[in-house]
Task: structure prediction
Amino acid sequence: MAITAAAAVSVSVDDQDEKATQAAPDMAPAIEPSAANGKLDAQLAGVTRGADDFADRASRTQQRIDLKQRQLREQRRRKAAEAAHRKAEATRKEALRPKFALPVAQRGVGELFGAAGSMWSSRHTGLDFPVPMNTPVMAVTDGTVEAKWNPFYGNMVIVTAPDGTETWYCHLASAKIRAGHVKAGEVIAYAGSSGNSSGPHLHLEVHPGGGDAIDPLAWLRSHGLDPT
Result:
């Protein structure tokens, strides 16, 4: 009976060992990197390089944009400075420009203001400049121009200065400027002998405020000009 028990114990132990052996899992094999992982790593590296390259191109593009903007700002600054310089120069020249000029380049006068004679109904109302036909006649002041015909004065031009003073240029051959704005010294007409005239000359009258005529010689001299 003892032998039987021992045998039973032996069988039981063997069964347990077999079951344990059957229950024990096999050892897992070593994991090796797959081809998919390698491909993913390569893709990630390519993406990284692409991002770096894009960032580099973006940086260079921004640098070009910044340079262009600096160039445009410098261009605008230079143009503004040049415009300011031109304006200042124009202002300087305008300040230095004579605001009064003699009506003809040739010196010498003829009949004076107030002279009596058969050519006038009362007294001579202007100052005569004995010059050849078609001698250039210049504006004595800045002002606006009006050209017209008068039976006594013939072809005439009237220049009205900013202060309202009118200068009349009479017995002209023709008017160069019939309307618009002129500056002192600008050619406005050509001397002649139209109207009630005995020969080529310029008849100049001065009418302050568009009123009665005054002595042109005294008026010219009051502005630093002497035609004699």
